[in-house]
């Protein structure tokens, strides 16, 4: 008698889960291999089209299946590129500088002929950019350049040529890094012998008996679409958008290979089960019940009892020999439905990924436009800032390149105010009283850019010289010095008193502080190097006041 012990139940979910789990470790390796394979095929297609367009003789330096280095060296002179471009667009390059007759192979890294490099390559790049074809950099033809951009440009030119030969209807648009037609291993359900035989048997034999309902229920329990979607999401979540189609295609191919492998194993086991179910009726004529005979028996039984629908149980007198086969075919039918459901789920996932990719591309495009606006605004801001600086310095020039200020020192504690010779102070004028020889007082007026009275503060004095100091950062030379007799307050104005406070700081300290503040504000735009030197000229000797040696302060350059 036939039993159910020999039946191997195939769970589609387990097959997919096993493949996806393996894919977590192998997808990166497979992806790198697929990328390298695709790059090679794209390079071969580009080289083949170039050789076909201008002829093998003209493209003798370009092999049919070149390596990345051979491809770059073959196009380095620009002769092949210009000739191909003239084939596609006659007269595009007016003059192609050919190699000298006695030329030899130029070693990699050596300088090419200036005419070949600057004329051929430059003319080719200018024309393809005007045609709207993706271009590349001239440095890509040198060692270490990106050959992928060269290949993409050649394939785009090939697409343009095919569009033009086809009549040039509509507008031409290059689709990007599309795969060559021979490179893609498209995912299709292979019509393998074990798979198709079992499916064909299932479609003609299966009846929905109570036992088959149980089997269907068990099979349905094996598949959980949400869990499959989670596995697919976990596998693809950390991958780049451009890598997802390769990974999905590879996983689908592996699922079908594994599924067909298990179907083949199950088919072999079913054949073994058929041999065990052979029941001899007599010693002379044994009866062997095959799968085809089972089909005939089931069809006859359906014709006899049409009212019973598909719920009737097949009754065979050969000790239930066909029961394992029927149940096995029913399982195959359910598994086929599960495969269809899996393909539908993966298709939905692919559609969602494509929608997500389009959304990301739109967001990147919007971000690019926003950044372009910001860059334009920043450029305009820099122009306005530069104009403001020029106007600022022009105003300083209009005020005069040489400015003279006068500051009246206040009386020291204990000195009577009646000794003052200052008669009148104005914004830019000062009038002093001078005694004459005959006892009469005379008055003299002097004009300056500005006059500071005895009550003038250090901050007020610096505020008038501050615009000149800021011009230093724009490249102007500025000199500020104090002149007067001993005790008139030169050191007080330039440095300050011995007990310094924020209010009593002199011009030197305030100028340095202002320079450092401005350089800090502009550090994102320009970098300044500030050096300080402080010397003293006294009794016809120049002394360095910043030297660490307090004894020998004589300036090195003075003898």
From TrEMBL:
GO terms for MF: ATP binding; microtubule binding; microtubule motor activity
CDD domains: CH_AtKIN14-like
Family matches, as Gene3D superfamilies: Calponin-like domain, Kinesin motor domain
Ranges in coiled-coil conformation: 339-401
Biological processes annotated in GO: microtubule-based movement
Region feature (Disordered): 168-187, 263-287
Composition skew (Polar residues), residue ranges: 172-184
Domain Calponin-homology (CH): 40-162
Pfam families found in the cross-reference section: CH (PF00307), Microtub_bd (PF16796)
Organism superkingdom: Eukaryota
Entry's Gene Ontology cellular component terms: microtubule cytoskeleton
Similarity annotation: Belongs to the TRAFAC class myosin-kinesin ATPase superfamily. Kinesin family. KIN-14 subfamily.
Ligand binding (ATP): 484-491
InterPro entries xref list: CH_dom, CH_dom_sf, Kinesin-like_fam, Kinesin_motor_dom, Kinesin_motor_dom_sf, P-loop_NTPase, Vik1/Cik1_MT-bd
Designated name of the protein: Kinesin heavy chain
SMART domains noted in UniProt: CH, KISc
Residue ranges of every copy of the Kinesin motor domain listed in the record: 401-559
Keyword field: ATP-binding, Coiled coil, Motor protein, Nucleotide-binding
